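Troubleshooting log. The previous structure file for this entry was overwritten by mistake, so regenerating from the original sequence record. Sequence copied from the archived sheet and checked twice against the printout by T.R.
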Amino acid sequence: MASASSAWHGATADETLAAFVTQPDGLSGDEASRRLAETGPNSLPEEAPVHPLRRFLVQFHNPLIYFLFVAALTALLLDHAIDAVVILLVVLVNAIVGFVQEGRAEQALGGMRALLSPHAMVMRDGMRVSIDVANVVPGDIVALEPGDRVPADLRLLRARGLAIEEAALTGESVAAEKREDPVAADAPLGDRSSMAFSGTLVAKGQAIGVVVATGSRTEIGRISGMLHAVPPLVTPLLRQMNRFSQQLTVAILGAGLFLLAFAVLVRGFDWADALIAVVAVAAGAIPEGLPAVITITLAIGVQRMAARKAIIRKLPAVETLGATSVICTDKTGTLTRNEMTVRHVFTATYALAVSGSGYAPEGALTADQGDDAAAISDAADILRCGMLCNDARLDHKDGKWSVAGDPMEGALIALGRKAGLDPDHLAREWKRLDEIPFDADYRYMATLHRAPSGEHVVFIKGAPEAVLALAEPKADPARWEQLGAQAAGQGERLLGFAMLALPGAPDRIRFEDLKSARMLGLMGFIDPPRDEARRAIAECRSAGIAVKMITGDHIETARAIARQLDLADDPKAMSGADVERMDDAELAQTVDTISVFARASPEHKLRIVRALQSRGAVVAMTGDGVNDAPSLKQADVGTAMGVAGTEAAREASEMVLLDDNFASIVAAVHEGRTVYDNIRKVIAWTLPTNGGEAIVIVAAILAGFALPMTATQILWINLVTSVTLGLALAFEPPEPEVMQRPPRRADASLLSPFLLWRVLLVSGLFSAVILLIFFGAQARGEDIATARTMVVNMLVVAEIFYLFTVRYLHMRSLTLRGLLGTPPVLIAIAAVTTAQLAFTYIPVMNEMFDTRPLSLLDGVAIMLVGLVLFLALEGEKLLMRKLDLFEELRS
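Regenerated output below.
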């Protein structure tokens, strides 16, 4: 039996039948069973789902979490049960939040399996029978009817008026016309007209085909294998967080061992006291609340994006959007409306431009030269031909126009309505008597009508060259070829129109009747660009984000749309065949300069995305078909269409657009940049707090004075302020001009030079005010418990004031907007103030945390120190801006 990998589209029907040792009346039942045992079922391999318990345990796989477990165990062994419980509680809360927000695992292969029809009509033992699609084998003879899903890859033996929706595989917006004639062996997927591919949908016509590939050997199966082979990507934020966690863990472990040895060997600490002091340092240095707050920040970004028609399936994708430097997008339905529209009408005398878009009968016909009314009158016959030689209808529901039938025929009805023609009235006046349906063999459609005058008239529409072949000698083919080339150069699809009167009033038409027809003209169709897509692309370009169109459509059509959308100043285009001729290194060198990739196969799309990533780009990729699934999974942010997209595309993606609109991607990038800004604010606020705590503990051990805070008090500060003040930063609105900044580099450090400077500076200031308050209280004769209570309150007040200065990394905080704060900020301050009052004045809290009530004077002094700290930090930010030392502070 023949190999399923051969180029059967280039072989004749007889060669294919011979190669698969089969015949038009099908296989015998015994032979089919033998082949099924040899090749296996016609299905795609399933992938075992990830068990929920495993997904939950993965949340603990982090060096910082491991370190906290060790700290909790140490505290428990030293009879510090409260410290151990608080540490474990923090770890558990973080794990639960991560588990809940992660969502379901990928089910891309399941989405592809949903495309396969459950049954197929095949010939077995000379009889037509319906069998389970899993039992289809190579060599089976399959019959196709309108509405059928193709059960396997077929080499067509006979096709009559066959058109197949292949958008899921090729990206073509119009159903592909099929015929049994072989095509070139190197024809791209979209041009293999002698093939029907598994999972595609029969739009019209009938066919018989021989199965040449089943299961994973089909085109859809090959794509499934490519998808399975794409490794899961780690987002920039996760890479940065993992690297940061490892570095911080190593640093804390090294410092802890050094301090333990120093405390015991130099300061003479008891082992138990030294260990609990090191636990206090670890508790102070480790930002245990940071993972939870970052997760919640991402979740808030998800909610904001949902309000802008973008659903995030995988949480880290929110942040990755903010780093996007290239958006690779499909054309049909994303940049365009996926609604065919007549743009030009050419008659023998006039050329008319048509306004409006979609199927709404709104717009006007205007002549390029001369009087509009005269031009429309001259075009009466071609307009009538377009509406009568037509099987589609337009529906108007809920204020929206849609087409039932062929999109181009729907566009013809919309055009006629724009010219004032009523399709129902026209159909009554010009009663249809007979028709020759469209077929890929002759490439035209003809209908016979009785005119109001009683004359019998044939209207013809089809491919321009096919209609011209039927026209009378004086049709002037040179003029039509020139007009056709002009429209094609603008990316328009062309149809030709003709008519002729039949003598004798026959009720039937024959092919031999269609001679010497009068050429009525040509019409140019286009799937018009979305207005909002044009605006969104302009916003992308101002934000330094390149937009690249990758489509299965023809190169001239794609290039014309790219020019209309201003995709680039001079958009350069490349075909899939050009990509095929390049190796990966050549493609990587070229990919930055190309704006349009046309006639692209799934392999081409995957290679293009990888080439961009090899150049350091963070790639967002849009798609709606099965052919897009591998590249969606490979991209940093795969984006599927929620309306027209296949389940396979949605399951392979990180984001789904509810409105299939490119503008929604740009809105999501805007939100992603805001989320990343807010994450950096959380980090810039959290780390100095932990740094200040750690510095004073280390200083106490090195200098030999009492710890200014206990481990339990440190954990109280970190837990209470993280879930209040830290969380408030997650709700921060976008800073001005967030889309005027260039994308950050994919390898950019989470701690930029400015943030690192800020962490060091604020950590030093926090430790200074802590020691000032601690020693000042002791100098006034306060006991150590009261001094520690003042230190905890001082640190919380300092964090509140610092919150206001860190809310704006790119501008001054000393503005009315900055000082008033957002509702989440005010709620957080109220919550943490209430918690601190309880911590300071409620007896049970005093006993649990060893705290003491403070006087009003102590509270006022602490507030004044916090205010001075705020003014000092704002002055530092102003100085840094004037010196232009850090990119974050540039205007």
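The mean pLDDT is 83. Archived copy saved in two places this time.
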